[in-house]
Amino acid sequence: MSTAARPAAARRAGDGPVVTTNRPIRRAGRATPYLFLAPFLVLFLAFMVIPAVYGIWISLHDYNYLLPGKPWVGLDNYTTLFDSTSRDAEPFWKSMRATGIFTVISVPFLLVVPLGVALLLNRAFPGRTFFRAVFFTPYVLGVAVVGVLFRFMLEPTIGVVNYYLGLLHLPQPAWTTSMPWAWISLVGMTVWWTLGFNAIIYLAGLQDISADLYEAAEVDGANKWQQFRYITLPGLRPVLLFVLTVTILASANMFGQSYLVTQGGPANETRTAIMYIAQTGLREFRQGAAAAMGYILAVALILISLLNFRLFRTDEGES
Amino acid sequence: MTASTGAAEAIGGMQENLRPSGGRGRGRGPGRVLFYVVLILLGLVFILPLLWMISTSFKTASDAVSQPLGWIPTPFTSEAYKPLASTTSQTPVILWFLNSLAAATINTVLILITASMAAYAFARMNFPGKKFLFGLIVGTIFIPGFILLIPNFLIVSDLGWLDSLWAIAIPSAGGAFGVFFLRQIFLSLPREIEEAAWLDGANQFQIFLRIVLPLVRPGLATLAVLSFLTNWNDLIWPVYVLFSPNKFTLPPGLSILQGAYSINYPVVMAGAVVASVPVIILFIFAQRHVIASVARSGLKG
Lengths: 319, 301
Hints:
Chain A is mainly alpha-helical. Chain A contains 13 helices and no strands. Chain A has helices spanning about 5-10, 30-60, 75-80, 90-120, 130-140, 145-155, 160-165, 180-205, 210-220, 225-250, 255-260, 275-280, 285-319. Chain B is mostly helical. The interface between A and B is large, with 116 and 123 residues.
């Protein structure tokens, strides 16, 4: 077809007005959209939709990968978790507690420290882009590299951290094998690893706050703290909610740090819910029980997320 | 990072210009000095552990643990990198590296192809079921990765992919992130160019391939980098679906290496360096795009 065919092509556009820029291009064959969608939909169905439904089915059966029979057990996999005499109840809730402890300790640091870094970066100075990249680099590395590195640095006798503490005549704790040091190690390395991610999101939020507001405040004689309290924090509210939600989910998903650094120890104190679920379903091959645990953790997370949104909304109403 | 979340949703513009915020950071004298002291100390906290990793990887096993600990390896040696090159040991790091490279590359290419096609359909075409399908895809954003862990293990097992690279390369391409990310970018393109091409007689697929894709190259590059990083760094999934030492990717491999060389720290650190180099290089080149896409993610609300 050449440009001479233009009117014909335009007419063939069919039912609606000939060419309207606000509409989707809808002159292609009926099958075309589905052909464009097909490759993705195959993957999406196979590894997202089907497993999401299949998981529920698994959790309602005494599903064991290694055994031939997979009898229907209804809600037994769920109720057994609330029966303190059952095999999984005690260790599962202990692991849920570990996830909860980690989330409660880590989230405040992961909210506040990156905000401080973002405030530092939110000023004009030479080398700003460089420093921004430096703070972000650990996040790019992934948990495995960060995990083996911290385990080495935190080694009680030969690790570099205790070496310098020794030079300063400070106590040299067993970072990865004693309480509460194991939690401090895991939270500390998590802050080091993911600080850049939250800081970059905060920084974008700070950049979004109009400079005029600060100028007006300065004219009115507001000091730095007042500017922070009454301009920066309210301006960051939507970003804060986003960071809070994402951070709680990430902390509740904690796996790699414990897996590599404390191996769940001491005495399974730092074995997180995800570790126990994976252990049950993918090492002991008791998939039915593990799937049920996953849904219980998910319900807990949904409740916490809803609570978040509620809290933030009430806050907004008040201020 | 779990396979489904990626680096959070990134929306819209690829460029991001930093501006100084008015009224802040204009201090002089002692305030300025304090600012730089804090900044540099903080910078050291982030750089020194990485330097320690690199420095240790060039030490001998005894130098790495003998006090006083030093930052300069004496003697300087690349001995620790030698065992990594063996393909027959229980810890064939070179194979893990190649496995990671292959899996992450296939995964990235698969995501670019499938997500861009689907995103284009959602951005530019009308069809029955569009709302439902898009709603379904949006819905899966809220499914936590651990819910899929057990059923996906069984699905991958049925496909015969356990202990194979397909298990690492394929399933996470079913995630919704790429479709959202690219749809947003397609929506921001002016339609006139596509209209003109249509009038010139190009079909939908030609328009997509020859006109639209070249226009969104920066967006494709960003998605490629994010996908590659996510796949390269994933730990929990390969830990449980790969069993043979020669099939491992680097993250589960490093955990084995840590056990196998529990007193030879330079080898473990050399392994960590090998796992870090590609992503650091990628980050240096794509730094601006990666940071911009993360920065955008918080602003959409």
